Amino acid sequence: MERIKQLISALKEEQINGKLDEVEIADMQTLTEIVIKMYGRKLEVLYQKDFSAEPIMPVSKSSFLPQTETIMFIHGLLQAKNIELFELQMFKSF
Question: Taking the model in full, what pTM does it have?
């Protein structure tokens, strides 16, 4: 897990230096896929232990992520996976 902390530190440094836009698209997509799989696995393990447990949020509620960037990311995910808002709403009510 130390390597993950090192990766996070390196990415934060690139953000501070204004170089996040230099990350290759394929590398960003790979990182995104890994983080989504990690998040899904964490939820799976949590619900195996206690199905009524409060869900783990993908980002902290006190996160400084701008809403516009968050919406752009969600929109891109929905398009990439061909998920309609109706399907998302159905899942949410499940």
Answer: 0.84
